[in-house]
Amino acid sequence: MIPSELVMPCQGKAGMLDLLIKSHWYKCSVSLEGQHLGITLDDDIDIITSQGDTDIAIPSDVPSGRREVVVNKSVESGGLGISIKGGVENKMPILISKIFPGMAADLTGRLHVGDAILSVDSQDLREATHDDAVRVLKNTGGQVKLEVKYLKEVTPYFLKATLLSSIGWDGLDSFLIPETGRAPPASPRADSRSIPLHFCMVSRQCVTGEEAARCFEIFSPDQKSSCVFRAESPGDAADWVANLTSAIRETLAEAAVLAGKSLGCGVGRMGWARVQQQEQITSHSSDSSFDSGTSSGGGWSQALLALTDSHIIWWETVPASPQQWSQPSRSLRLIQTRLVNHRSPIYQTEQYCICIRHGGEDGVSCHVIAFDSKSDQAAWATGVVATTLNAARRVKKWITQVGYKGRNCELTVDSDEGFSLKEAETGNIVFSKNFPELVNSSDDGARLLWLEFRQSGEEELDLGKNPKPLVFVIHTFLSAKIQQLTDSTRG
Q: Rg of the chain over CA atoms, in angstroms?
């Protein structure tokens, strides 16, 4: 994932690919236009194979002329059990495009996909629009007389349409997608399919063996559907993956902008990753709690990440509304986090990881986030660090109530001024220390925090709650101060 301002617009791509439908490959024309992928099956499809994959049988003994078929509707369903396409507005007759097994039309044994409906109960449909035909068919009685004529030449058309209807997915209804992008491009061919790419994922792990380098897979946002393609060569497959990835990145960058405008906050980036939370870490030393190895946690799960100007948050699914955005699976306040190196062998299968420690009310938690590429890993790591330091400079102060030598006090940690402790009742200053005077910090993971300063030595503070949030804030403020000094020196 890269920031929206650095995303180069996808220039589009078109070409021939093989598409896996059920267990067979079908040649198709594929075009990448903006944020949609158009698919049109080749005219020269294998009729025998496609009949098996669509459950559409091409009859061999249908009379060539007109014929009448009487359909008796079932009491239970009350319908004919057919779907229709066409209409005068489409320059097509009213055609039966699907017959539902076991329903009234199917039970006649005399109706077929590809039959043109010329009339219904003597009402002429030859010049009817699609809506007119639907209305007439819905208003029929228990017994319906259809005048039909089989059009053999349209059967391959319906075979292709039926094959394509079994793949792909509809667009998301989410505030993160502009309304103009939720619908497919206008007037697609009826035997074509347009797949929205918003919040999709691309994988190269779909096929094993000799053909693996030629194949790639596009997953729907909910990961319940996918399309597997096969290119002519590994190079062509890699080119398609690069173009698709670029198009999907555009949708994510656009989503980040829309989220920021809708929610009134900065959203730097969004993207998919795999996350794993490790076991809760108990440590008395702030140093060891940041830099020790991590223990094995639960399994990996797919998550949609967002990096805002104050938090890193993620969800299992794409949030449809601002309300769902406010209910993430996990939300980590950046000034209470630290990006650390992971050295555990359990991550060897996940090459491109970042590890985030978070100091919360329940202690320190560790979250490992895995990406698909080194560039994504680097971009997210850089983004998390930079945004965390900016958040620290913006927050500047952390104030908390503490107990000190039997007195109720207020501790202020200021990113510029350092540490200040004053009595709650009188406001008298107990001590004031600059950041450079801090030598070490440690805590008991429950309520006590020890701050060791030059000359004055160690001070014990009782927070009455887990000190980890404050410990992490102190370290974040220190990091921001060091970075600021470094930038000044370079300048």
A: 32
